[in-house]
Design goal:
Strand content: 15-25%
Oligomer: single chain
Mean pLDDT: 84
Number of strands: 8
Structural class: alpha/beta
Distance between the termini: 26 Å
Helix content: 25-40%
Low-confidence stretches: none
Length: 282
């Protein structure tokens, strides 16, 4: 790791003092992938919109809330509903903005981008025809706050749907997914980034906004505590993270595990490998 990246990480850690994190262990995330595939019927699992990241929202929310979805939308209802009565309720204010509720309703939206809308479909069609892939996708590096700004319309859309479908006695949560290749962000190498995010002013009625900067960072804004980082860690020296494929981030490992356990064979645009190619010098 270069000195400049080490310096960036050190500055990130310094600036993060006073902000909040919610950390879970690897076995909790592993258990979430298993319980989802066991709890939800196959037709519900296969109805999830992979291109929008609905499966990712289900996996991440199940792990951090320690609760399985009580309902998943298949006919125009709320995307995900969580029954929190059996949850430990320790961090509900941080995660949901409220701790006086028994249910949380999530609407899942993905931020539009040229990679998923243009490049990836074209590449898929080319491979199906046995042709070469299209020219390389060009992405413009932005800041994490630029990603938040680009998410405003989707947060507003989720808020409108929650007002129509949910009720004030439930936590109303917008879950926003942004693909790295649509908006590569400069803070991606920093372990904590919530301190760098501008204050959020979501539409009325939203209690929390979860952001997945796929596949690197999970963050949550709540009306009770502002921005927080959601981390996946080892709590003991003996605990080791799972082995995962070269070029895959850890959360992608769990996405693949969930897709396998749920027997979902449709392709996910978020399940990809990062490799570096070049020419060998003589």
């Amino acid at each position: 790791m270069s000195d400049s990246i080490n310096d960036d990480i050190a500055r990130s850690l310094d600036a993060s003092v006073g902000t909040h994190v919610v950390a879970i262990s690897h076995d909790v995330m592993d258990a979430a992938t298993a319980v989802l595939s066991e709890h939800l019927p196959p037709e519900t699992l296969n109805a999830m919109k992979l291109a929008s990241g609905e499966h990712l929202a289900a996996m991440l929310a199940t792990a951090y809330l320690n609760a399985v979805p009580a309902a998943v939308d298949v006919d125009g209802g709320v995307d995900l509903t969580f029954d929190l009565k059996a949850s430990d309720r320790l961090h509900l204010k941080t995660l949901l903005g409220r701790d006086d509720i028994e249910f949380a309703d999530f609407e899942v939206k993905s931020v539009p981008g040229t990679f998923r809308e243009k490049y990836l479909p074209a590449a898929t069609r080319a491979m199906e025809r046995g042709e070469e892939k299209p020219p390389a996708h060009l992405g413009q590096v932005v800041s994490a706050n630029d990603v938040i700004e680009a998410s405003a319309a989707m947060i507003g859309k989720a808020a409108g749907q929650l007002r129509d479908k949910s009720s004030p006695d439930r936590a109303r949560v917008a879950f926003i997914v942004s693909h790295f290749f649509d908006r590569p962000y400069v803070e991606c190498f920093q372990p904590l980034i919530s301190h760098a995010l501008a204050p959020l002013d979501p539409p009325e009625g939203i209690d929390a906004v979860w952001m997945y900067f796929a596949p690197l960072h999970v963050l949550v804004w709540s009306a009770a505590g502002g921005w927080s980082d959601l981390l996946l860690v080892s709590f003991t020296e003996e605990e080791k993270g799972p082995e995962h494929a070269y070029g895959m981030e850890l959360l992608q490992h769990y996405e693949g595990l969930f897709l396998e356990r749920a027997r979902i064979d449709k392709p996910s645009p978020f399940f990809f490998e990062l490799t570096v190619s070049g020419t060998d010098e003589e």
